[in-house]
Amino acid sequence: MRLSELANPSRFNALVERVLPWLVTATALAFALGLYQALFVAPDDYQQGATVKIMFIHVPSAWLGMLGWTLMSVSALGTLVWRHPLADVALKTAAPIGAAFTLICLVTGALWGRPTWGTYWVWDARLTSVLVLFLMYLGLIALWRTVDDPSRAARAAAILTLVGAVNLPIIKFSVDWWNTLHQPASVLRLGGSAIHPTILAPLMLMGLAFVLLFVTLHLSAMRNEILRRRVRTLRLLRAAAANP
Amino acid sequence: MTALAALLRRDMRLAVRVGGGALIGVLFFLIVVAMVPFALGPDLALLARTGPAILWLGALLASLLALDRLFAADHEDGSLDLILMGRAPLELAVAAKALAHWLTTGLPLVVAAPLLGLFLNLDPAAIGAVALTLLAGTPALTCIGLIGAALAAALRRGGLLVPVLVLPLTIPVLIFGVAASNAALAGPLPFGTPFTVLVALTLASVVIGPFAAAAALRHGLD
Q1: CB–CB of A165/A67 below 8 Å?
Q2: Which of B90, B143, B165, B222 should be substituted to probe chain A, the one whose Cβ sees the most A Cβ atoms within 10 Å?
């Protein structure tokens, strides 16, 4: 089944219905394994104690928040450049999921910062740019809701997504470019990761679990959006037939 | 006279006439800056320290206010369709409208800022710094606002959507504008460092804004 064949919404829905049970199972297994590893196998930090284990939720959420906007940027290109029929569905449905993960990242970060830094919030470069990402997610969702016709909203949303994508490298490199309270990059950096394998392995496992969760939620949301648009079209047709 | 010059002149004329909103922005700026001491209290030292920030926020909100008249009015009476169908490239036409908007909204804010700085007890060096950073930064506010205005051009119930879309994108301009103003006031950072970044942001937005706005107009209106 090539990507171009998936442009057919009915075929896409059929594929999602077949794949979804496996995805849900895989997500549940990955979370079970990841949480077990994170909570019981990974060691406590010598300074922070068990508080460090918030990292296993906070860091993957941050990754997914940024991955969400990256995915939306690719979908935006699909809408504007390649005119893929389902690109705008992917764009619309990824926004709330990415916003939720960004919110989880901000909240868990605040909860982690209170005992370790002494404050829930600080206006350093990393936190500010992630907050700006969250605000842009909300603005994008607001834009979708303001226009009645989904396909017209799609093009405007696609442009806004591409403009907002400039924030992603700012977030990633903010801890390098500015003197921030948030710690510098430890996983994806030149010279390899700086985390010990006993903590890195559960982190990667949790990352995989979060990615599977995102894919599961996203695919089922795309299916729902396709069905929602069909309902809308049917309603419009019925209204038009009732008023000749 | 070329089409772009005609567009520029038309927009400027429309802005200064009744209902155009050229000086409403300055009035809003004045009102906002006048209201802040009511909220903060009359402590002159506090006002002097936060003065650059208050002026920048006021200028940001005032230029945001005038954005919806950029494209919405033209969309309603059909001239936006004529601009889209014209021979001039849409990006340049949009840039001409942005220039007219800045000359009639942004530049008056820059001129009004020193006067309002007196209300906030800023010393002359601070007033000069704020005016200079506003001069460098208001084009960025106009061009970034251009994107939001173009996205919301065809919406009937746009409401507060344009500020919600535009404000997160203008945060870097605000940060560096205030940082440059404060650097001129107190140490240790030299004025040039954040000011250079501010100018860079303006130059980048002058390029990106018209392109994104033109794309938004093209795709959003058919």
Answers
A1: no
A2: B165
Q: How far is the C-alpha of A190 from the C-alpha of A39, rounded, in Å?
A: 29
Give the max Cα distance, chain B. 57
Q: How far apart are CA B162 and CA B145, in angstroms?
A: 8
When the pLDDT of each residue in chain B is averaged and rounded to a whole number, the result is: 87
Element (DSSP H or E) covering residue A71: helix A55-77
Examine residue A53 and state whether it is found in any structural domain, yes or no. Answer: yes
Helices and strands, counts by H and E, chain B: 10, 0
Residue A238 burial class via C-beta count within 10 angstroms: exposed 0-12, middle 13-18, buried 19 and up: exposed
ipTM of the complex: 0.76
B201 to chain A, any CB pair closer than 8 A? The answer is: no
Residue A106 in domain: yes
State in Å, rounded, how far the first CA of chain B is from the last one. 30
For residue A231, what pLDDT is reported? 94
Mean pLDDT within B163-167: 86
Flag whether A13 is in a domain: no
Q: Yes or no: say if B170 and B141 are a contact pair by the CB < 8 Å rule.
A: yes
Round to whole Å and give the CA distance between A18 and A24: 11
In a domain, A189, yes or no: no
HSE, CB side, 13 Å, CA atoms: give it for residue B167: 20
Q: Does A65 touch chain B (CB under 8 A)?
A: no
Cβ distance B155 to A147 less than 8 Å, yes or no, reads: yes
Q: Number of structural domains, chain A?
A: 1
pLDDT tens, A151-208? 788 888 998 999 999 888 888 887 777 777 777 777 776 667 777 788 888 899 999 9
Domain boundaries, position A91: 28-183+194-238
Q: How far apart are CA B32 and CA B27, in angstroms?
A: 9
Q: What is the DSSP string of A131-191?
A: HHHHHHHHHHHHHHHH-SSHHHHHHHHHHHHHHHTTHHHHHHHHHHHS--SS----SSSTT
Q: From chain A, pick out residues whose CB is under 8 angstroms from the CB of B171.
A: 128, 132
The verdict on a CB contact (< 8 Å) between B219 and A139 is no
Euclidean distance between CA atoms A170 and B197, whole angstroms:
14
Question: Nearest-CA neighbor of A94 among A141, A27, A26, A151?
Answer: A141
Substitution target in A81, A138, A143, A167 with the highest count of B β-carbons within 10 Å is: A143
Report which residue type is found at A100. Answer: A
